[in-house]
Design a protein that fits this description.
Helix content: 10-25%
Low-confidence stretches: 90-97, 154-160
Radius of gyration: 22 Å
Strand order of the largest sheet: 2-3-4-5
Number of helices: 2
Distance between the termini: 34 Å
Number of strands: 7
Structural class: mainly beta
Strand content: 25-35%
Largest sheet: 4 strands, antiparallel
Length: 160
């Protein structure tokens, strides 16, 4: 998928040395959303007990169509990261059941992709007041009244 960024966490898990990750991570398109710029990822990795604590932030620009008027929308988003990975008991690989950790390798790219895609909004609109498209002629009602004369009903935002 092109978003792999592997970080060696051996020093964090072995010697307990904290590690700061400050990277640009490319995120592949997801559904109707695209990411035209790499996400800026800043993470603080530290050992907590036998586990790994990850705190920080992801700043990313999300592009996609407005759900109401279909115009392109670009929104800057900040995702606060607070993740903890604890090893399951009784396995030789302490993070065997995890898809972003393998031994001393943390896939920051895949972690970023998962966190960003899970934080995407269910509804993506250009503005809260978006009037949407006319259900009769398809005119963008944000640009004014349409030629077909269809009335904008109170509470009607072109959603069917």
């Amino acid at each position: 998928m092109g978003c792999s960024l592997i970080v060696d966490i051996g020093g964090v898990m072995g010697a307990g040395q904290p590690l700061i990750v400050d990277e640009a991570v490319t995120i592949p398109a997801f559904a109707a959303f695209t990411f035209t710029e790499p996400a800026h990822v800043v993470l603080d990795l530290r050992r907590v007990g036998r586990g790994l604590q990850i705190d920080g932030s992801i700043d990313v620009r999300v592009d996609g169509p407005c759900d109401r008027c279909l115009e392109d929308v670009s929104v800057a988003t900040r995702i606060e990261v607070e993740e903890r990975f604890d090893p399951p008991g009784g396995t030789s690989d302490p993070f065997a059941e995890n898809n972003v950790l393998s031994g001393d390798a943390l896939d920051v790219g895949d972690l970023t992709r998962q966190l960003v895609t899970s934080a995407l909004p269910m509804g993506f609109v250009c503005m809260n007041e978006c009037a949407g498209l006319c259900p009769q002629c398809g005119h963008n009602r944000n640009d004014g009244a349409c030629a077909c004369g269809s009335a904008i009903l109170e509470g009607d935002h072109g959603e069917s």
